[in-house]
Amino acid sequence: MAAVVLPETEIQQTYFQSPLTLIRDEFDGGKNNWVDTFKEIITKFVKDLDYRPEEPITEDNPTYRALRSEFLMKYDNGNEFYDQMYRTAVTMAELSYRDHAPEIRLEIARFTCFLLHVDDLGKSFNTLEGLQKRILMGDNSDGEFLQAFRKNLIGFYDLYDPIPANSITLAAISCISGMLLEQNDAVRGMKLSESSKSWPNYLRSKTGCSESYAYMLFPKSLGLEMTTYISVMEDIVFITNAANDILSFYKEFLGGETDTYIFLRARITNKPLVETLQLVVKETLEANDRVTKTLQSTDAYGLWKQYVNGYLGLHFTVGVRYRLNELEL
């Protein structure tokens, strides 16, 4: 039998106790302030990525107006969740894909809204387990939402070449399985051994839909050959996931979430949380260097730089979702 990283009782006392206690225990007698440590890590991270502050998306933004109008008429039940969803989805599309055509940015914003809706309001469907099957079979028993989501996925075939379009749609379908894995009590409580080191990466690859967003960088209208970027696609996907994990860690930490990527890696490798966070930062910067080196002499370079800057900007400008404004960065 593979050895468990920590005995079950010790895991309960360590990696499932209060995150605040976990961080404080990593410092010398609590003398150092964990908030200052977060600020230092994040500040250096975005500086190393040459981040230039982005302006928040306003309500007079055309994509915001179009998306909000569409969802208000069809799906919005007045829950304040929707206001945050619109802001997040439009900010992702407008900042990360600034040089794309307006119709592409709107389609990306729709896509994000549909996934956020499924992720946060999945209980409103007949069953989340059967959602993929109903999408593929054209079953509209969940009402107009499924028709619109299916239309959105199919629409990417008009905007992207076949392989990127396939990857966008398949990653979206796969993401629903990731949501189910995250919610499964047996999976959440399973024992993890030293031989389970690939598990955090596998789960993360399922839940982030990052392959979709990576391929969205390269619509057919730009005329880029796939060989321009495909060799670093895995790095683009990793950066998309990892940057979110790094910049979401503060709010997840405060929310007491212990089943996130950083926590899982720390648990399996038996490393402190701060050390694990710093390691993910290092890996992300190394991946960014590889992508930059590959794309810097191509027409994709400007797209890549804006994607990274806009994606970081998403986390800083949507303050309610990520809470980075509390760190006064």
Question: What report would you give on this structure?
Answer:
Belongs to the trichodiene synthase family. Pfam families: TRI5. Keywords: Lyase. GO terms for molecular function: carbon-oxygen lyase activity, acting on phosphates. The protein is mostly helical and 329 residues long. The chain has 17 helices and no strands.
Short characterization:
With 329 residues, this protein is mainly α. The chain has 17 helices and no strands.
Secondary structure topology:
Blueprint: H1 8-14, H2 19-25, H3 34-48, H4 62-74, H5 81-96, H6 102-121, H7 131-137, H8 144-159, H9 162-183, H10 185-188, H11 199-207, H12 210-215, H13 233-254, H14 261-269, H15 273-295, H16 301-317, H17 319-322
Task: Give short descriptive properties of this protein.
single chain, 329 residues, mainly alpha, globular
Q: Based on CA inertia axes, which overall geometry fits?
A: globular
Largest sheet: none
Tell me, rounded to a whole number, the average pLDDT.
Answer: 84
Unreliable runs, pLDDT <50, ≥5 residues? 1-18, 28-32
Tally of helical segments: 17
Question: How many distinct beta strands?
Answer: 0
Secondary-structure element series: HHHHHHHHHHHHHHHHH
Structural class of the helix and strand makeup? mainly alpha
Strand content: under 5%
**Termini gap:** 47 Å
Rg, alpha carbons: 20 Å
Percent helix: 55-70%
